[in-house]
Amino acid sequence: MNKTYVAKKADIQRNWYIVDAQNKILGRVASKIAAILKGKHKPIYTPYLDTGDGVIVINAAGIKVSGRKATQKVYQRYSGYQGGQKTVPYATMLAKRPTMVMKLAVSRMLPQGPLGRDMIKKLKVYADNKHPHQTQKVIPLEIK
Q1: Cβ-proximal residues to 66 (8 Å cutoff; 6+ apart), any chain
Q2: Which end of the chain has fewer CB within 10 Å, C or N?
Q3: CB neighbours of 84 closer than 8 A, spacing ≥ 6?
Q4: Largest CA distance in the chain
């Protein structure tokens, strides 16, 4: 009879990866980062536990999108009040808040709820190539 392996807190070891997003496609980078934050690249992956690693994204301002998304994609949010829906085009969001573009893409690929909120805390996004995480032993992650 086979037994299902369940990861314990003591079994989880976290690494830090660094991703250079310059001239990369937003969706491809975000899906790879989401899988690492979830821990799907590890043999101890457990769906209801946070077994993932941390990810540092640099050069988020240089991210690209394919097709006509650069002109057609919009970000929407709603305050809950009448007339409280705000829409921001992708080009404006990338110019004003490039880190938010990456964070939104990744967070929408993670579970919604307390588990997803814990996972997104391990994502650090920076608009340029400077980051304050030199003390972590970061592993470069190449995304095609």
Answers
A1: 25, 27
A2: N
A3: 78
A4: 59
CATH number for the domain running over 14-65+93-140: 3.90.1180.10
Query: Residue-wise pLDDT tens for the chain (144 aa)?
Result: 778 888 888 989 999 999 999 999 999 999 999 999 999 999 999 999 999 999 999 999 999 999 999 999 999 999 999 999 999 999 999 999 999 999 999 999 999 999 999 999 999 999 999 999 988 899 999 988
Give the CA radius of gyration of the chain.
17
Residue whose token pair is 């990338």:
94
3-class DSSP string for 46-98: CCCCCCCCEEEEECHHHCECCCCHHHHCEEEEECCCCCCEEEEEHHHHHHHCH
Could you tell me the residue ranges of all domains in the chain? 14-65+93-140
